[in-house]
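Chapter summary example.
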Amino acid sequence: MREADEAQRLAPIATRAADTRGRDREETEDAYRTAFERDRDRILHSKAFRRLKHKTQVFLNPDGDHFVTRLTHTLQVAQVGRSIANALGLNEPLTEAICLGHDIGHAPFGHTGEDALTPFVEGEWQHAIHGVRVVELLEPLNLTFEVRDGIRQSSWKNDPPPSTPEGWVCRFADRIAYLAHDAQDAMRAGVLRPDDIPAAYREMFGAPGRGWIDSMVTMVVDASVAEGWVTMAPEPLAVMHELREWMFEHVYLRPDARIQATRAVKVIGDLVEWYAAHPEEVPGDYRLADSGDLQAAVDYVAGMSDKYAIRVHDERFRPAGLY
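The structure predicted for these 323 residues follows.
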């Protein structure tokens, strides 16, 4: 009955649970939840999701209770995504599942962690691609194709783009949430003042935080209704991309952040090399049949929270008797 309701109620472009491309391993369907609702619940109850509470968003191991963590960012993305999906008549449980899982593969220390892990793999280590490895192999959740596709393609750098409109909603929701709340965190930390943000961005989107979220969500909804697909009009989209570049220059890659990043890179690099040389110390869940010692070490360190990585690094590399 609920799948029949989706068929009647959702917009023509929405993804229906009854039309899912399925799971890698067949399962008996749940009597009360659609396939996408089950996926959402599996992600929410996973160990990898719980570890996000101690993973960095912008400020590494920050002092204070109100800085955004990877977990609170994920919850914000899910709420922004649901708001957009609801307004457009898209599948909310699928949108929520993708949004809740989009950062599940993130390394410790934010995007610095990605840079630190890249030398140990072929090509580029990406949290979105690793997220699929997490839910398929490291903590097998047997998610539907649509959710795994949305997680993998949640990063704007990955092509082809998401195959569902709900996956596209996650891309926009992620960017909206982190621009708004990272700017607030930067002001909370004294890195930015409200007047530091160029007038062009404030004129387009309003005040950082709630104002940015409201205006960007509205722009996505209005343009998507007009175009028949999830999008944003060219002018605000270009300004949003410019704002992202400005945030990288003035917040993410500021001089003191680079000092922190150098330390984080050393912590991760040291740990990967140590665990690759001591594979017996890697927990069994990370020693997969298709993984060599280095891959197992990368998988294990990538799953660590910031605090755990720092603690283990202290234990392995602190000179004896120093303190």
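To summarize the output: The chain is about 60% helix and 0% strand.
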